[in-house]
Design a protein that fits this description.
The complex is a heterodimer of chains A (177) and B (180). Chain A has 177 residues and is mainly alpha-helical. Chain A contains seven helices and two strands. Chain B has 180 residues and is mainly alpha-helical. The chains are: A mainly alpha (177), B mainly alpha (180).
């Protein structure tokens, strides 16, 4: 233990001899931390070689195959008609004999409650903004409730279905009669 | 690089659509890939989500009104597609969202397209503990080096809130890395 002549404070043995070494170690450590932050700068993900070259082709093939192809019918028109007629006859026969019991389902066959249930149960997770970007307003039929005249019967029917006790409603107009 | 407005116009015209779409795919495929990859983690899943994102963009380009920038609209679609993908996956596997996240990180150990060391794996574990939005903000800022103004347009959140979210995420990740 080393004692200062003018003070009563002590320092551990060899403190000042090791001071420079410890200081330099500390500086080095701090420099390393700056150069290599705690959170790694690379998160380690890779993509397979050549993936980005192939993905364009893959995406484009999926979008272009949906485009309608125009097939010229002028040449061999009679042949096409003949083939089409035979195919139609076969399809008719098969549809009558083989598929007489099967029914094809279209979007129109879905009742609105089924669509609502689907939308409720499947997390579409679309923000209002995205919905607004995708669905153009002009395609939605909106009724202007201020300009449209509602039939009295329709109002009463709505109240009848949606209000528990219709008699408790306060009919302002009736009071004046 | 082709101006965004010109590209949008070309995408909306039938004659130039195919060519413009190819330009669009080539311009954004890498950026969107890394954005999606950092959400769904697995390469094959990322590929599926990336392709779906581009197909949605293609189908809905007529509905794009240009009220936001094209790239932020695409990023938004990619983000929603990725998060929806994860929700559907957890439903399919009958596990909770958190269980799925933990499972995804564990799968990274055997992933040939993840060359992460122990610290990078630990980072993914830390990220899995964050709420979705905080994780998104962090990866977009730290790894994708996006500006707050860009993230703000994509996530429709104010820059102030994003900055707060980012700093909170950094603190949580640092604490996790130090403690584990």
């Amino acid at each position: 233990m080393r004692k200062d002549k003018n003070h009563s404070f002590n320092t551990p043995e060899g403190y000042f001899e090791n001071f420079n070494e410890r200081l330099m170690d500390n500086i080095k450590k701090q420099e390393t931390e700056i150069a290599e932050p705690l959170i790694p700068t690379n998160d380690g993900f890779n993509a397979p070689d050549g993936y980005f070259d192939d993905v364009t082709t893959s995406v484009l093939s999926k979008t272009t195959e949906k485009e309608t192809k125009v097939v010229p019918l002028r040449s061999n028109r009679k042949l096409y008609y003949g083939v089409a007629a035979i195919a139609a006859v076969f399809m008719l026969i098969f549809s009558i004999t083989w598929n007489s019991n099967s029914t094809s389902i279209s979007f129109d066959d879905l009742v609105s409650s089924e669509i609502e249930t689907y939308l409720e149960n499947n997390d579409l997770d679309m923000t209002m903004y995205e919905v607004a970007e995708i669905i153009p307003l002009k395609e939605i039929e909106l009724n202007n409730i201020f300009s449209d005249v509602l039939e009295d019967d329709a109002i009463l029917e709505y109240l009848n279905e949606n209000v528990d006790d219709i008699d408790n409603l306060y009919f302002e107009d009736l009071d004046h009669e | 690089m082709i101006a965004e407005e010109t590209l949008v116009q070309e995408l909306k015209q039938k004659e130039s659509r195919a060519q413009a779409f190819e330009v669009l795919v080539n311009t954004y495929k890498e950026r969107l890939y890394w954005h999606i990859r950092r959400i769904v983690l697995d390469h094959d899943d990322t590929d599926d989500v990336l392709q779906n994102t581009f197909i949605k963009v293609y189908k809905n380009i007529d509905a794009f009104k240009g009220e936001s920038k094209l790239y932020s609209w695409m990023y938004r679609i990619a983000t929603n597609e990725s998060l929806t993908f994860l929700k559907q996956k957890s439903k399919k596997l009958k596990v909770s969202d958190q269980e799925l996240k933990d499972q995804m990180v564990e799968n990274l150990r055997a992933d040939v397209y993840f060359e992460g060391s122990e610290i990078q794996l630990k980072l993914q574990k830390a990220l899995a503990t964050l709420p979705d939005k905080q994780k998104l903000v962090f990866t977009m800022k730290y790894y994708q080096e996006m500006k707050y103004s860009e993230i703000s347009e994509i996530l429709e959140t104010s820059e102030g809130a994003l900055k707060a979210s980012y700093h909170l995420a950094v603190k949580k990740i640092e604490t996790y890395l130090k403690e584990n």
